[in-house]
Amino acid sequence: MADVTLRDIDPLLLERIRRLSVARGWTQEQTCMALLEQGLFASEHEVRSGFENPEVDVLSEAIQALHALPAGSDL
């Protein structure tokens, strides 16, 4: 797994992470991984809200196709 470095973290946020790791008995690395996973799941759920998997797949493919267009192209 790749290392992740976070810079310029708000001291209050860092303290909240530290308190959670102490409360759970986790290392700060374990705590950050759990928080990233939970945040990612929540964000994915928010994006998927109201869509079924096939609709999300089609929407993702359409977005990828748009990103593949050269800059300044007319549709």
How does this structure look, described?
The chain is mostly helical and 75 residues long.
* Distance separating the two termini: 40 Å
Q: Count of DSSP E strands?
A: 0
Counting copies of identical and different chains, the oligomeric state is single chain
Number of helices: 3
User: Major sheet: size, sense and barrel closure?
Assistant: none
State the helical fraction. 55-70%
| SS-based class | mainly alpha
Strand content: under 5%
Mean pLDDT: 83
**Low-confidence region ranges:** none
- Radius of gyration using CA atoms only: 19 Å
The rough form would be described as: elongated
Write the layout of secondary structure elements.
Elements: H1 11-24, H2 28-48, H3 53-68
Helix pairs in contact: 1-2
